[in-house]
Specification:
F-box protein; mainly beta; four-stranded antiparallel beta sheet; globular; 2 domains; single chain; about 230 residues; disordered N terminus; At3g26010-like
Length: about 230
């Protein structure tokens, strides 16, 4: 369930619901009136569209699909539109997205394809939704050299799972020269600065238990959220 703030006195919650036929409808809840209302007419969406986890950015909610069309919903105009996506490389049948999020009004996407998953680009959506541009280039090979536990030595270096990590967040600073990536790999979280490639350990976690449990944290797409103080009840 996603929420968007209308004004200081009221808020709206926007929900996309689905059926087995993949027909979708959007309803908006107003905390001012305490009621739901339907927005627009029923529409169809690809089965691969993930409506459980959307990203709110610049007064719109965005949902991505691993194969079909991705969508965004303009909350103010209550209009649903298709969102362009980068081309899937030849030889791949679905997206290998590892991060989809927002920071300081910028929408970001990371897709990682082989053979070396430690080298990848960070895409940023153009303001007019004309497409994605490469905003940052990331090289985690130096990180892997400093933290060898990031690599799986028992696998072939060309294996997609050779480097075990997950991307937690992209943080845009007011001065973009200080913007950075937060990466998790076995028992650690690090900060990686985009501009100067400087990195440092942010936190060390206690061992998670079994190797299988630890592995589930290393290859998934996570949704992390920056903390901000607020007087609003959440």
């Amino acid at each position: 369930m996603l929420s968007t703030k209308r004004s200081r006195k009221s808020s709206n919650r926007t929900v996309a619901s689905s059926s087995s036929y993949h027909h979708q409808s959007i309803e908006i809840y107003s905390s001012k009136t305490g009621s739901w209302r339907k927005s627009g007419s029923t529409f169809t969406a690809p089965i691969e569209t993930n409506f459980r986890l959307g990203v709110f950015c610049n007064r719109a909610i965005h949902w991505i699909s691993s194969c079909g069309s991705s969508l965004y919903f303009d909350v103010d105009e209550e209009k649903l539109q298709k969102m362009p996506m980068p081309n899937i490389p030849d030889g791949y049948y679905s997206r290998r997205f590892r991060y989809f999020g927002e920071s300081r009004g910028h929408l970001h996407l990371i897709e990682i394809y082989g053979p070396c998953t430690a080298l990848f680009d960070v895409y940023e959506m153009e303001r007019d939704y004309s497409g994605w541009m490469v905003k940052y280039r990331v090289d985690l090979l130096t990180v892997a050299a400093a933290f060898p536990e990031m690599a799986r030595s028992y696998l072939d270096p060309l294996d997609f799972h050779y480097y075990g990590f997950s991307i937690l967040s992209i943080v845009r600073e007011e001065d973009d020269n200080n913007s950075y990536l937060v990466v998790h790999f076995p028992n650690k979280a690090i900060r990686y600065n985009f501009k100067d490639k400087y990195f440092k350990k942010l936190h060390e976690f206690a061992p998670i238990g079994t190797d299988i449990e630890a592995a589930t944290l290393e290859y998934r797409c996570f949704y992390a959220f920056q903390y901000s103080e607020s007087l609003a009840y959440v």
